[in-house]
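Sequence, please.
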């Protein structure tokens, strides 16, 4: 029997073996209740109830012991369920989470407010910086959890890292840009183009600089910024300018003022949840870490 059937079994006894009354209290049919009991007895080759003229009149010796065991199991189950839903109310403390502004906007805009509102006993501090700086903040233990980009360039002996979102970097341009007519963009297409990118506090900046060197291309770097929406607005109003941002921006912020083009051999944009490996974590650290991972389970 599962826990539901154990409750049915106990309820029959508590209702003086009256199946009609028990079935009404449990909101199930009496035939279904009788069948559940018969199936269990036949499967286990035991008899739980004494019967007379087809009616249950009491418990057998085995049934009495099973009844006491069933009460203990249901009691323990109720305690487990209660503990499960009261544990979060007992968790208090402070947590500092580092999240890049772009990732906060397009990945955590719903998740973080919900998590904060659900856990009013926890004091949250969100540190918004580029992933390149947050990596150092994590290593210096100035933050407990960091949202970074893979590869983090930190030894796996030092951190635990879990992928939350897998996407790629794409090209964002005005509909009037000369590359707008192309369905896919090659890295060679970017040679000598006017480009706006994140500043060097962002991991994307370093990923792009490495890609430019690897493909032996030299775009004209017009501006650098820590604001993704400023970069996007810049290409909206300047048909000669382009920027490279994560693909989910196009999926969430559709606009006739810019178009997105995917790049052949794109740079992966993999958002990861990281923390330093330690022998002991606070209850708050473990709970928030697990909660964030659970938010991305599909």
């Amino acid at each position: 029997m599962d826990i539901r059937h154990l409750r049915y079994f106990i309820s029959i006894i508590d209702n003086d073996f009256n199946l009609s009354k028990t079935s009404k209290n449990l909101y199930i049919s009496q035939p279904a209740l009788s069948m559940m009991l018969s199936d269990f007895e036949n499967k286990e080759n035991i008899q739980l109830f004494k019967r007379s003229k087809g009616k249950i009149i009491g418990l057998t010796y085995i049934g009495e012991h099973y009844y006491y065991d069933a009460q203990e199991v249901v009691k323990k189950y109720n305690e487990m369920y209660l503990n499960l839903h009261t544990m979060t109310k007992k968790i208090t403390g402070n947590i500092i989470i580092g999240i890049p502004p772009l990732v906060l906007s397009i990945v955590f805009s719903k998740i973080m407010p919900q998590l904060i509102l659900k856990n009013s006993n926890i004091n949250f501090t969100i540190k918004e910086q580029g992933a390149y700086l947050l990596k150092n903040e994590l290593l210096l233990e100035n933050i407990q959890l960091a949202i970074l980009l893979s590869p983090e360039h930190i030894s796996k002996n030092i951190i635990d890292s879990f992928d939350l979102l897998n996407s790629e970097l794409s090209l964002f341009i005005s509909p009037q840009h000369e590359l707008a007519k192309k369905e896919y963009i090659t890295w060679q297409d970017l040679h000598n183009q006017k480009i706006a990118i994140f500043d060097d506090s962002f991991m994307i900046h370093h990923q792009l600089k490495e890609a430019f060197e690897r493909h032996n291309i030299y775009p004209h770097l017009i501006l650098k910024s820590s604001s993704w929406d400023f970069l996007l607005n810049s290409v909206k109003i300047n048909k000669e300018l382009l920027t490279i941002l994560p693909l989910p921006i196009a999926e969430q912020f559709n606009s006739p003022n810019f178009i997105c083009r995917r790049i052949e051999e794109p740079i992966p944009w993999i958002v990861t949840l990281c923390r330093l490996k330690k022998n002991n974590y606070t209850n708050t650290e473990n709970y928030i870490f697990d909660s964030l991972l659970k938010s991305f389970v599909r």
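The mean pLDDT is 90.
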